[in-house]
Design goal:
Order of helices and strands: HHEEHHHHHHHHH
Oligomer: single chain
Mean pLDDT: 80
Strand content: under 5%
Number of helices: 11
Radius of gyration: 29 Å
Length: 310
């Protein structure tokens, strides 16, 4: 057998060898999507666009050499959506939306306060629609605002999931947020929380103080408080959405306190108006909070907040 020249054989790449640090570089992420996000972020930091097609270079038989071409346009953090018209960048549009919401809620409250006068002109159907505190129109408006808040939370989740720096997968909080707002919307529109309270009263002793309200107020407060703590950290880079979130929480606390059988210097009529008014104002502030944070994510940055974990 003829001797093979010393340098006449081309040796292919050793596929059994592993690149040092490859196993530990992305080991901090437990999910496949988070590991891919971390890898894409590292490649973009090294100046390599992961979406750039590879061009094959001439090489000997058995060896494949590729090179990535440089991109002229850097990666952008802003997420472009076809629904960007629903989340504008101009501040005056949000001001117009807040004023429209306030006028609509004020009109519902005024119709409920003067329901007797309205009934003299259009009949008892007016009282059926706008009676306080459980008028169908007020319940529909509350459910509408909460439903829109849930849809904006889903839109925020869509934008946040495109971030290359969310290594912990914190964008998933927005799906849970949307689920909670949808549940609250269902309760506000149908009165399901009162039905739940009546079910609890069927099995629990009725001599407990405020049990008819506490039966649904305690679970709702626990869920809302847990979500408030999480969203407070998530919204730390957007002051406007954070302010409206805490305004909504304050209005909800006032609504719950007015629902309890506590003696306050207000007539029954004024108390009913205050209950409905604080609840509608809280729903409006929550909607504005979700709307403003969707603006922050879609028009500024989809990356998570830089607030430290406490």
């Amino acid at each position: 057998m003829d001797a093979i020249p010393r340098h006449g054989r081309q040796r292919g790449p050793d596929l059994t060898k592993r690149v040092p640090g490859m196993d530990t570089r992305f080991a901090g992420s437990q999910r496949l999507g988070d590991r891919r996000r971390r890898r894409l972020a590292v490649e973009s930091d090294e100046g390599l666009d992961p979406e750039t097609p590879a061009t094959e270079l001439p090489s000997a038989t058995g060896i494949r050499r590729t090179a990535h071409s440089e991109t002229s346009e850097p990666l952008r953090d802003v997420v472009a959506l076809p629904m960007s018209g629903l989340v504008p960048a101009q501040w005056w549009k949000y001001l117009l939306g807040a004023i429209s919401g306030l006028l609509s809620g004020s009109g519902i409250l005024a119709a409920g306060w003067y329901e007797s006068i309205g009934a003299t002109f259009v009949g008892p159907g007016f009282t059926r629609l706008f009676s306080l505190p459980d008028g169908p129109v007020a319940a529909w408006y509350a459910g509408l605002l909460l439903n829109l808040s849930a849809q904006l939370a889903v839109l925020t989740w869509w934008g946040r999931s495109r971030s290359l720096k969310d290594f912990d997968g914190r964008y998933r909080i927005w799906t849970r947020t949307a689920s909670v707002w949808l549940l609250f919307s269902f309760c506000a529109a149908t009165g399901a929380h009162q039905a739940f309270s009546e079910t609890v009263l069927y099995f629990a002793p009725q001599d407990i103080w405020g049990i008819d309200v506490l039966a649904w107020l305690i679970p709702a407060s626990a869920v809302g408080l847990a979500l408030l703590v999480t969203l407070n950290r998530e919204m730390s880079d957007c002051r406007a959405s954070r302010i409206f979130l805490f305004l909504a929480a304050t209005c909800y606390v006032a609504t719950g306190g007015l629902r309890l059988p506590v003696e306050i210097p207000l007539t029954d009529r004024m108390r009913e108006l205050a209950v409905v008014g604080s609840a509608l104002l809280g729903h409006l502030c929550l909607f504005l909070s979700m709307w403003l944070h969707a603006r922050h994510v879609l028009h500024f940055t989809p990356d998570p907040s830089r607030a430290p974990r406490r």
